[in-house]
Amino acid sequence: METKNVMIVGVGGQGSLLASKLLGALLTDEGYDVKVSEVHGMSQRGGSVVTYVRFGEKVYSPVISEGEADFIVSFEKLEAARYANCLKEGGKIVVNVQQIDPMPVITGAAEYPENILEELKAKEVFIDEIDALKLAEQAGSSKAVNIVLMGRLAKYFDIEKEKWLSAIEKTVKPQFVEINKKAFELGFSS
């Protein structure tokens, strides 16, 4: 089996590391060789955070280069645009339609770009948009955006939903398991 590559991109504090841990646990349980690598920007200050998850029969490097990502899961629109060049031909971007202003926009030094997703679609990039924040709130916590996005990503994997739910039980603190299962279900079924 050829190695598959998933990039999880977002802003510090959004739960991208838990999402990658969940995906890594699921894929390991499925018998794949899995490598996970985290790249922190100014994550504590709301900066960009990138996690690479690579899986296959044998994976030698945890890093995904430009043009290699089968999937990009983006917690925010601008992050989807920032990493779109990493997507391989025929790859897919699952993106939360939320807008989180980066520091240059907050300080007034820059403007948040308009029509980001439309521009990517014009370049024939496959974009799967989801209002993950709305669904997370519906599940009971705005912090469950990451698991809503994992639910949406799961639609593109040939792994039974029950196995994803089992991975949630293994990776999420017990007091948050039910909210996260609900968030996953909402992402999966939307």
Notes on the structure:
This protein has 190 residues and is an alpha/beta fold. The protein has one domain: Pyruvate-ferredoxin oxidoreductase, PFOR, domain III (Pyruvate-ferredoxin Oxidoreductase, domain 3), CATH 3.40.920.10. Helices cover 39% and strands 24% of the residues. The protein is built from eight helices and six strands; from the N terminus they run βαβββαβααβαααα. It has helices at 16-29, 77-83, 103-106, 116-122, 132-139, 145-154, 161-171, 177-189, and strands at residues 4-11, 33-40, 48-56, 69-74, 87-96, 126-130. Strand 2 and strand 3 (48-56) form a beta hairpin.
Overview in brief:
The protein is an alpha/beta fold and 190 residues long. Helix content is 39%, strand content 24%. The protein has a single domain, classed as Pyruvate-ferredoxin Oxidoreductase, domain 3 (3-Layer(aba) Sandwich).
